[in-house]
Amino acid sequence: MKRCGNPHVVVTDRCPSYLAAMKLIGNERRQETGRHLNNRAENSHLPFRRRERAMSRYRRMRNLQKFKSIHSSVHNHFNFKRHINSRIRFKQKRDAALREWRDLLVA
């Protein structure tokens, strides 16, 4: 912002922390929050928001780290990216993963 000057308009989502930051730097009147104005930023932040939502349930870092280590291995085991695979291939991979998962639980 030092090189280019203050922006005319800053498009953000409705997250309250953005309003606080805009007040801090003196751009609160230039902030725009609209329904479709911020689609690119919103979609890029979805994985972070999902992670933050899961992290907010834990008060201790140790419990969060236990959850994260287990969740990441399970998520990677069952995440097949449906938009890339055909329905038949997706079902084959899912069934194989479920069989392997059940074998792990029995053993």
Automatic annotation (TrEMBL):
It comes from the Bacteria. Residues 5-78 form the DDE domain. Residues 30-49 are annotated as: Disordered. This is ISHne6, transposase.
